[in-house]
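[Meeting: bench + compute handoff]

Bench side (C.D.) handed over the final construct sequence. Compute side (W.E.) agreed to return the predicted structure before the next meeting so the bench team could plan truncations. Sequence as handed over:
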Amino acid sequence: MSTATAFVTLGSLPFCPEEISGSLSGSPAYLGNLTLTQVMAFAWNLETIEFTTEGSITDGGSPAVTVSSACTLSIAPFSSSVLTTIELDKSMWFGAAISPTAIASAPSVRTPVQRVCDAASTPTGCLLDQTATATAKTVVVRFWIGTDPSNSGKYRIYYYFAFTFTETTLNTYEIRYSHASLAGFTSWGSGTISIGGHSFNWYSAYTTAASVLSGTGTLTATSSSFTY
């Protein structure tokens, strides 16, 4: 948790929630019926997030094939126990897009003042759009804010999680974590994680052919926000 410089604006704010529900990629989930104070506090003040997944699956073959989902991913600053490369799209939290680069070389998160006062590099509503990868591992995390078309005068936080862990030595076996239930896989776990004072749903699933499970297939998260 860091202390941020307080800010004021003269005139209208450069970043304001708009109706974006029809233009979002990946069929995200959302938290709806929120006040402007709630969504802008999330957009301006969130500083760090750390995701942790655990659990593995093993098939019944000989030799056995195992897929592990043991992983941590920290956002702001970026680091990971297994992921090595990061790619960022334009966003309020990190500014201009970043082509795939070593995760340790990712930019620092913007302060609240930087987020509020620079809208030039921020697409509508996008707070974070990141893809972290390593061999047979991909983690995508996205957050947006927009107006709530179902509740006049209210707002939404949209979110998208896609964690994929794959083993392709003999056959393709996968473990996935998502913001929505996963068709075509065997359900494993589900729950909520708290980020910036809000609860977000998650689901885990694995390739049906797997026969041995280890761990519970859980996704956990911690976060912190700037103070003033």
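W.E. noted at the follow-up: The chain has a mean pLDDT of 88. C.D. will use this when planning the next construct.
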